[in-house]
Amino acid sequence: MNFIKFKSFSLCLCLVASCLFVISCDKDDDTTTTPTPATVDFSGQYTQADQKGRPAVNTVFVPSGSKDAFNKTIPSQMGAAYASVFETTLTTLNPGYTTNALTWDATTFSSALATDVLTVSTVGKTTFFDGVNVLTGRALEDDVIDVELLLIFGGPDGMANAGLTSDNVAANDKDFLNTFPYLATAW
Amino acid sequence: MNNLKFLAGLFSFALIGIFLMSADHIDAPAVSNGTADIADYYAFESKENSENMVFAVSIQGLLSPAATGNASFDENVLIEINIDNNGDAVEDLVIQLIPRDGKMYAFGPYAPGNTGLVSSIDDDATRIVADITAYGETAKIGTNGSSKLFAGPRDDPFFFDLGAYSEILAGNATAFSSPGTDTFAGTNVLAVVVEVPKSSLGNADTVNTWVETKIKN
Description:
The complex is a heterodimer. Chain A is mainly α. Helices cover 38% and strands 6% of the residues of chain A. Chain A folds into two domains: 1-44, no CATH class; 57-164, no CATH class. In chain A, helix 4 (75-93) crosses helix 5 (106-114). Chain B has a five-stranded antiparallel sheet. A five-stranded antiparallel sheet of chain B has the order 7-5-4-3-11, with no helix packed on it. Chains A and B meet through helix 1, strand 1, helix 2, helix 3 and helix 4 of A and helix 1, strand 1, strand 2, strand 3 and strand 6 of B.
């Protein structure tokens, strides 16, 4: 219904726009009518449905029965609500977990993950991980899955569970662009 | 899909199931199949202008080429980019993205009147407007100063051997394949890309950011 209403509203706008066009082209027209400017309706309230910060890990860690609830938990409350749940998931995925390449133990890692926001540097390189910079953004080229697998399964030196620390897909199926909008054209 | 967001839900499905779900992949139950289903989120320094930051959001993921032309942005779905520049995980600024009659509007960054789960749009805020690019068309880019906006179908930038991961979690494999197979190869998303001056994000050296979809009441 809203859609139909909007369509008829847009139609009205088009008619108004056409009138404006006719008037503006008619230089001899001496009308003093001030046309109503075309406006677009942005009113109303919008209620949260889905949300996302970091890629992959966080929601892998949310139990299936809590996914809708997680999507409607504001980030500042996520840590308290989900850190212990994430820790259980982490140690279930990798029962041998001790620490990871960031030297984070299970509690530290789970707590960091539970607040699902992406940290981004405004003054340096922006990358999920490039061997030097850690969690300073997320670039299109970043192999975020390998980073996360390494942090979950790789142990303190990244050498543990060798068959689980890379999915062996290192790049996208199309090259990204160096100019806006950066994402590759559709297939 | 919320790339990986739907992973947990897929754990028990076989690879074939993933492809069968390609037109209506699952995320959390309430948003799967819907026009508000976030696929992925990126934030990075502009490759064109180091003074700018880029935020890229993909929704309605795993679109086959045949399905892409029929996919569209929903005028009842607000995409909201949140920026926290004082470290408390509460948004100090938002960039609101919403389609109207073939155009995508970006409002902000601006300080919202209220934070949290319910939002309204202040259409007095700084705006960028772009014609929504149709499937197969050359990208139409809206600008305002050095800010830019794009909305339309794009290749899904995500890459992952989700099939192999699912097999591992199901207990059917103990390691990834080499080489792996990109489950997202050949699929599209609806993307919105917005580029704004870093100076519009506040003075912090590091910001926290996340994206939400919100549905009109």
